[in-house]
Design brief:
The protein starts with a strand and ends with a strand. The relative contact order is 0.16. The strands form six sheets. The chain has a seven-stranded mixed β-sheet with strand order 18-7-1-2-3-26-27, covered by helices on one side. Strands 9, 10, 11, 12, 13, 14 and 15 form a seven-stranded mixed β-sheet that branches. A five-stranded antiparallel β-sheet has the order 21-22-25-24-23, with helices on both faces. With 461 residues, the chain is of the alpha/beta class. It has eleven helices and 27 strands. The longest helix has 17 residues. It is globular and about 60 Å long.
Length: 461
């Protein structure tokens, strides 16, 4: 009987981890459980091309290997996990046994207390269906569109909606847009660009209460302003998609707790990757944290697959230098490292450099792709990983028994070459080729799944 690896999550991290399993020679069964009805797609386009209508859902689909040979279970979210029996349950009461599992469930849009989420005019943006619903609401209504939140998603949404010729209000608790992520100078320039393009900006305010009316929704702010919107989008952050893991015995406070090699603490043959994984990046002080960036899903998914196959005792620490980007009104902001760790800033060849404990921990630039490429290797140099650094396995408050799971996934049928992605994470990558997914409009080539199941029903070719 062949071995089975179950990938929970049908997004970017899930599909890239499945591809890496095949690249490393795993010839057993791969089952991908996806909570969505769509095959994997690019999420960065949701706040841009999908909102404006430049792309159709087919344009957003990801390319993936024709040799994947996976069983796709669409509309089949994981409902419960028992790590001891190595079983996962899906709708209909079906129990699926696994020899190894990759958790790649990502995040869900964060709820906002007091917001009338049951009103069809109030939306969040996380999935392709969310983007389709928002675009439909905008096209079928008139008047103001209110976006709550001044992070990447909120700002990109406001930009896209202005490109559609609609009136937009951007309501933000912080005094400036993106200030805490990209630095004060670039945050100020982004803020000014939104104002110049006609966005009605309300910063440093909270929402006192909502008033639902037939013609729209009244939003009463703490400074006395009132906005009346025909469509509202809540862009107030995201929460790890871990509800299905309640009762599993795993630490799921702010994501799935992993060691530095992506292995889930307290379980055997279980790894996690992407937005849902909380792990200690030994390159950046070893504190456990999550990283919600597109490229981390790619690199983390591949590293998790490698480390699952070779097992804990032979796994390599996952120590990436994160990279991120946003594009608004034709201005491209790019960054690398973890600027959030910075306690001070400095100029780095025209970029904003973020400093912590005397080290450069992040860089951000506006319209400076060449400089980002040039300076990113400095982040690797100043934050070099010690080769004798022990693999972190558990926080102090965890029971010592959690470290006892040292057995690798049975590999009697798996030819396993030397891992490459986990090793490569300690070497400066080609930033120009991996900074972001293609943004030009195109039809994405992709393989046809060998088998697709919807909601645990019968397989269909």
């Amino acid at each position: 009987m062949s071995e089975r690896i179950v990938v929970v999550g049908g997004g970017l991290g899930g599909v890239r981890s499945a591809e890496r399993l095949r690249e490393m020679g795993f010839d057993g069964q791969i089952t991908i459980l996806s909570a969505e009805r769509h095959l994997p797609y690019h999420r960065p386009c949701l706040s841009k091309q999908m909102i404006t209508g430049e792309w159709t859902p087919d344009d957003s689909l990801l390319s993936f290997s024709g040799d994947l040979d996976a069983e796709w279970r669409m509309n089949s979210p994981a409902l419960h996990l028992d790590p001891k029996s190595q079983s996962v349950w899906v709708p209909g009461g079906e129990e699926i046994k696994y020899d190894g599992m990759i958790i790649a469930t990502g995040v869900d849009a964060r709820a906002m207390g007091g917001a009338p989420r049951h009103d069809p005019r109030v939306h969040v943006l996380r999935t392709l269906d969310d983007a389709i619903a928002i675009r439909k609401n905008i096209r079928q209504s008139q008047g103001l569109v209110a976006v709550i939140g001044g992070g990447f998603i909120g700002c990109e949404l406001a930009c896209s909606i202005r490109h559609m010729g609609r009136d937009v209000a951007l309501i933000v608790r912080s005094p400036a847009l993106l200030g805490g992520v990209v630095g004060d100078d670039i945050g100020k320039k982004i803020t000014e660009a939104h104002v110049e393009h006609g966005v009605r900006l309300a910063t440093g305010v909270g929402i006192k209460h909502w008033v639902r009316q037939p013609g729209g929704i009244g939003i009463h702010l703490s400074d006395g302003q009132v906005f009346f919107a025909s469509c509202v989008v809540l862009a107030v952050g995201a929460s790890p998609a871990v509800d299905w893991l309640r009762g599993s015995g795993l630490d799921i406070s702010d994501g799935v707790l992993c060691d530095s090699t992506n292995h889930v603490v307290g379980a055997e043959n279980l790894v996690a990757c992407g937005d849902v994984a909380r792990w200690p990046n030994m390159r950046f002080n070893g504190a456990v944290r999550r990283v919600e960036h597109w490229l981390n899903a790619v690199e983390g998914g591949r590293a998790a697959a490698e480390n699952l196959l070779v097992g804990r005792s032979h796994a390599k620490t996952y120590t990436p230098v994160p990279r991120f980007w946003t594009e608004q009104y034709g201005m491209r902001v790019q960054g690398a490292g973890l600027p959030v760790l910075g306690t001070d800033t400095t100029d780095v060849n025209g970029l904003t450099g973020f400093i912590a404990n005397g080290k450069l921990v992040g860089i951000v630039g506006l319209e400076s792709p060449g400089k980002i490429i040039t300076e990113t290797p400095e982040l690797f140099r100043q934050n070099e990983v010690e080769t004798n650094t022990p693999v972190w396995t558990q926080p102090e408050e965890e029971p010592a028994a959690a470290a006892a799971a040292e057995e690798a996934l049975p590999t009697s049928l798996i030819p396993v070459p030397e891992p490459v992605a986990a090793l490569a994470s300690s070497v400066p990558p080609s930033v120009s080729s991996s900074m972001s997914p293609p943004l030009q409009r195109r039809r994405h080539s992709r393989s046809r799944p060998e088998m697709v199941r919807s909601g645990g029903g019968r397989a269909r070719p």
